[in-house]
Fold this sequence. Notes:
With about 190 residues, this protein is an alpha+beta fold.
Amino acid sequence: MTRPPVVVDLGTAASYSDDGLIPGVHSRQPGDFLMLSFIAHGDPVGQGNIRHLGKGRPAVHQNAKTLLPWRDTVRHAAINAIGARTGFPLDEPVRVEATFTVPKPIGAPKTRRTWPSKRPDGDHLLRACLDAITHVVLVDDARAVELFCAKRFPLEGVDALTYPGVLVRVYRISDLPPAASPASGHTGR
């Protein structure tokens, strides 16, 4: 059963702390700043292989019938979360965190924690998500220099949603001083 797309912008619904992060919700990396956070509901679809239809004909994704609507859902969720804010698409190094909540199989145990260790692959899900937010959130998906991807079943684990979908957070990576090297005489202890 597919649910209609629902878009929630976590950035406007929560109170931020002094460092721009929602306490208890966002991971804290020194110097990073949350730029955008949004949820897109729907069954996540991974970006599969490309099928070549022959000379002079276009190449299409093998799962284009399900992939393209999913990417549109993610893209529209990102557009709605951005709203009237300026500075997008970002043209700087960012960290992208995506937590995909996938449908739980009917035969899965109900009384104990289970893991979504079957298809779709997490890297395929992340590729589809990055392609969806390219030119909307990011100038190019190459700007994502740190990537975090997790798959969860509904209501099982950190950042799991109630229904299938994806929670995406985009952080600006600030200029941090380089780590001390052993040659500098400082061992970091």
